[in-house]
UniProtKB/TrEMBL annotation:
Belongs to the peptidase M28 family. May be involved in vacuolar sorting and osmoregulation. One of its GO terms (biological process) is proteolysis. InterPro entries: Fxna-like_M28_dom (IPR048024), M28_fam (IPR045175), Peptidase_M28 (IPR007484). The keyword rRNA-binding does not apply. Its cofactor is Zn(2+). It comes from Lactuca virosa. The chain crosses the membrane at residues 456-480, 492-517, 550-569, 575-595, 607-628, 648-669, 681-702. Residues 187-380 form the Peptidase M28 domain. This is Vacuolar membrane protease. GO terms for molecular function: metal ion binding; metalloexopeptidase activity. GO terms for cellular component: endoplasmic reticulum membrane; vacuolar membrane. It is found in: Endoplasmic reticulum membrane; Vacuole membrane. It is a multi-pass membrane protein.
Length: 933
């Protein structure tokens, strides 16, 4: 890999200029005079002088074996995949009821509950299927009560919540009020008998029975309900030794805006005893259920880390979730924001592409998934329910201002430490790093400073080229593929489409920086007076080796900058930067630096890279792959407003993520390539992988979607009365998955037209691109189904204006109303049937000039409402714009009209209806009220 032969000892210095000067000084000392009478004698320093001609015998070879570099690449790739597999796919063996006995957790028993619930089909709020689901859970809870330990009290309550309004101020719910009515929950409390004070201290374990209208919900969240039932059975055999009770909440209304959790926490008498909340969720189906939110008090995560058998959780997921990058919400938000509770939020995240589609089904639920979550939760509940320290979870505990930073290692061990310790660690590492860099630059002078600047410039070039290459692919995909996200059903395509270009770009950019740096170092050597003493080849090779070392050290500088930024903004996942900085720096200092006065130009050791990157890849390699899979799966539901984003945007975000991972994690490895003959092999190999992937996409050999990984679409029979004319009726087809619907329409037929000419405002979102057909759309509904907005009273004075509006939603118990906050200062909403005030006056948030009310209720929910509008100061003025809207209303009916039924029957197998709290059902009525009503 490297050969060196010299007759001179060469001094070790911190930079090229000083090293060359040291050689020159030794040369002068040992050859003080060309006329020395006896060159065979030793000088006063004990070193025998040599002839000047012998200095030219110095041989420096800057070359690394290409096989060694290729071996390193193979080691890194297989190492990352092995870490991911062990950390996220190594699930425990499912256990039977006989194996675990009365007190253990059995996946075999839990799966019976999953099967029973999924057999009901989709069971959204207000459906008959949900009533059956509630009845099933209630019966299973009663069985647990009858089989519990004789020293344990088990209370079962079928709770019928009153109407309420859920006003959350953050995340997806800004500018919204979520109103609910006629919701039912099953609540099960387990506590030790004979000790009444325990009921005043409880742990809440919560999940939801209801699903969206498009999915049977094997993952989201029948799997969670099943785990809770099996946990409750086991806990009921242990609770006689508890110091705290455990409450299991099986709620409904979560999919309509977290309404079940809100109604329980604000209305149920047991809620006042809760000190900690555990929420079980799913944003995919199966796999390792991991913590993705914890706190704000760190007590729960610290105790979970102590006892969990297969601990799984990453604060990186929490950072992404709370930042809004992941557009979703869970009941845990209610428990934190409304009840002021701390705790843990778990979620299954395998195969996120099936989320809220028909493919959230039992056959895709991996064996071992329930066992993984169940054993972790059983150990955690037994530990915390027996603890006398639960009161530390009180919301006013000052320890919540010192949150926990947590991550698991290979799903086997969890590291947890407080932010205060992180601050000390980060400050120490940052200060020491800056001192070392500062001292190095000061000692090296301008040469060192310029070398540092050039090496950092190579980092910038690496990012620029890597992003440019991968983003370029994202831009061209919509033009060469039937889908701008052709990798959804086959995520491995991402490696060829984005990883290969990102890597080639990073290598190209860093190599350009390397050449510039090498040229500068060589030029400085040429300018020194040693130009006659060292050969041109020696100086050129020395420059290559010094440039290689500077590139390695520039990677340290990159991670140092990220650590400083992350620490400044208190980003929990800043520990990534700490690990990627300290471990390679320690390896470099231990294996490359020396205190010896002799310095020979040499290549970086291979063991330095292996030793330096072992811990960083062990901690973060699996998470990099996991997050990439999550981003790929989210492409199915990327376009929240269909047609509102460019088609290439989803692929672009994925390309940016992959480029970032490449530039961050491979910066050290790339520095080893430039003096190796492996550059060509690696580049050619990357081009081949990219070409094969691109060919597969262009030819259509690999379809973007399959029956099991479907494109998310909505088929809605729209009846629009917003134009104050005769109702306009048509069938609308749109998709939250980026891309045109040309292929789907060809498959369906039925006279659909596609484009952006018919923009549909569904109140909670806008479909800018859709397909529509009006043929045979007058059947399946009648004018009596159309909701009404009637102005009953409108009074105005010089100071204020007040308008009374009655709303009749007819058959619908699920509707959305948008109120123009540019005109309306405040409002209140009453139940028109019983006079109950649902929304009181007070400060209302808005988004884009509108406040949205989302209403969801059961079969017996109200359908008539009274809305009182309090206008702002400009409300009394005459309006010139006759088309400006004051109110926008959409009502949903879970009914299949003949035309919709026919379209659904012809819907391609690679498509699935997609449900969420803001999406309409299969029949939607759209109405409005203008400002000049």
């Amino acid at each position: 890999m490297f050969s060196y032969k010299s007759i001179l000892p060469i001094r070790k210095d911190s930079n090229t200029k000083q090293g060359v000067r040291s050689i020159y000084k030794l040369y002068r000392m040992r050859n003080r005079s060309k006329n020395s009478p006896d060159t065979s004698k030793e000088t006063s320093d004990g070193v025998k002088p040599v002839d000047e001609t012998k200095i030219k015998n110095v041989v420096v070879t800057a070359k690394r074996s290409p096989y060694a570099v290729l071996a390193l690449f193979i080691l890194v790739i297989h190492g990352i995949w092995a870490v991911h597999h062990y950390q996220f796919e190594n699930l425990p063996e499912p256990l039977s009821a006989d194996q675990v006995g009365k007190r253990g957790f059995s996946e075999e028993s839990a799966m019976k509950h999953v099967k029973a619930l999924t057999q009901l089909g989709p069971h959204p709020v207000g459906s008959d299927a949900l009533e059956l689901g509630l009845q099933y859970v209630l019966e299973e809870a009663e069985k647990i009560k009858t089989t519990a330990h004789w020293e344990v009290d088990v209370d079962v309550d079928l709770f019928h919540a009153s109407s309420g309004a859920n006003i959350l101020v953050s995340g997806l719910f800004k500018g919204k009020t979520l109103v609910y009515s006629d919701l039912k929950h099953v609540v099960l409390r387990i506590s030790p008998k004979y000790t009444s004070e325990e009921v005043d201290s409880a742990i809440l374990v919560s999940s939801h029975i209801d699903t969206v209208f498009s999915a049977e919900g094997a993952g989201d969240c029948s799997s969670c309900v099943a785990v809770m039932l099996e946990l409750a059975r086991g806990i009921s055999q242990w609770a006689h030794g508890f110091k705290n009770s455990v409450i299991f909440l099986f709620n409904t209304g979560e999919e309509e805006g977290l309404n079940g959790a809100h109604s329980f926490i604000t209305q149920h008498p047991w809620s006042s005893s809760i000190h900690m909340a555990i929420d079980l969720e799913a944003m995919g189906i199966g796999g390792a259920s991991a913590i993705f939110q914890a706190g704000p008090n760190p007590w729960a995560i610290e105790n979970y880390a102590l006892v969990a058998k297969y601990p799984s959780g990453q604060i990186l997921a929490q950072d992404l979730f709370t930042s809004g990058v992941i557009k979703s919400a869970t009941d845990f938000q209610v428990y934190k924001e409304v009840a002021g509770l701390s705790g843990l939020d778990f979620a299954y995240a395998d195969n996120t592409a099936v989320y809220h589609t028909k493919n959230d089904k039992l056959k895709l639920l991996k064996p071992g998934s329930l066992q993984h979550l169940g054993e972790n939760m059983l150990a955690f509940l037994l530990h915390t329910a027996s603890s006398s320290q639960l009161t530390k979870m009180a919301s006013n505990d000052k320890s919540q201002h010192d949150p926990a930073i947590y991550f698991d290692i290979l799903g086997t061990y969890m590291v947890v430490f407080r932010q205060s310790l992180a601050n000390m660690l980060y400050n120490s590492v940052i200060m020491q790093s800056m001192m070392i860099w500062g001292t190095s630059v000061m000692m090296g002078g301008s040469t060192s400073a310029i070398s540092l600047a050039l090496s950092f410039f190579s980092i910038l070039l690496m990012w620029i080229f890597s992003l440019s290459f991968s983003i370029g692919v994202a831009f061209i995909l919509p033009f060469i593929s039937s889908s701008p996200v052709p990798f959804i059903s086959n995520p491995w395509l991402v490696g060829g489409l984005f990883l290969s270009p990102a890597f080639l770009g990073a290598l190209t950019g860093q190599h350009i920086g390397y050449l510039l740096l090498q040229k500068y170092i060589f030029k400085k050597m040429e300018n020194l007076s040693l130009s006659l003493s060292l050969s041109h080849v020696v100086k050129q090779n020395w420059a290559k080796l010094e440039a290689e070392r500077w590139l390695y050290k520039s990677g340290l500088l990159q991670w140092l900058i990220l650590l400083v930024v992350g620490h400044y903004f208190k980003v929990g996942s800043s520990y990534f930067a700490l690990v990627w900085l300290v471990s390679p720096a320690f390896a470099y200092g231990l294996l490359e630096a020396t205190l010896s006065p002799n310095r020979a130009p040499k290549a970086l050791k291979t063991i330095t890279l292996i030793f330096g990157l072992f811990i960083p890849f062990l901690i973060s390699g699996g998470m990099f792959v996991r997050l990439a899979g999550t981003v790929v799966g989210m492409g199915v539901r990327f376009d929240r407003n269909p047609g509102g984003n460019p088609e290439w945007l989803g692929s672009l975000l994925l390309a940016v993520y992959i480029s970032a991972v490449v530039c961050l994690s491979l910066v050290y490895l790339l520095s080893y390539i430039h003096i190796s003959g492996a550059k060509k092999f690696i580049a050619i190999g990357s081009f081949i992988v990219f070409g094969l992937s691109l060919t597969s996409v262009i030819s259509g050999i690999i379809p973007p979607f399959t029956e099991d990984i479907s494109r998310a679409v909505n088929v809605v029979h729209v009846v629009d009365t917003s134009a104050n004319k005769e109702p306009s009726s048509y069938i609308s087809l749109f998709s939250t998955t980026p891309g045109k619907l040309t292929k789907e329409i060809e498959h369906i037929g039925e006279g659909f037209e596609c484009g952006r000419e018919k923009v549909i405002d569904f109140v909670t979102f806008t479909a800018s691109y859709s397909c529509w057909t009006e043929g045979n759309s007058v059947n399946g509904w009648s004018k009596s189904d159309i909701p009404t907005l009637n102005v009953e009273n409108d009074n105005s004075t010089t100071d204020e204006r007040l308008t009374q509006v009655t709303i009749d939603t007819k058959e619908s118990t699920r509707w959305s109303l948008a109120i123009n906050t540019n005109k309306i200062e405040d409002f209140r909403l009453k139940d028109g049937e019983n006079g109950e005030e649902l929304i009181q006056t007070g400060t209302k948030s808005s988004a884009d000039g509108w406040h949205i009310i989302q209403y969801s209720g059961g079969k017996n929910a109200s359908r008539r409402f009274g809305l009182t509008l309090y206008w702002g100061k400009n409300g009394t003025q005459v309006e010139n714009d006759e088309n400006e809207l004051l109110l926008k209303l959409r009502t949903d009916v879970d009914r299949l009209t003949p035309k919709v039924k026919r379209v659904l029957e012809k819907l391609p197998s690679w498509c699935s209806l997609f449900g969420k709290s803001t999406s309409p059902h299969t029949l939607a009525f759209i109405s409005n009220l203008r400002v000049n009503f």
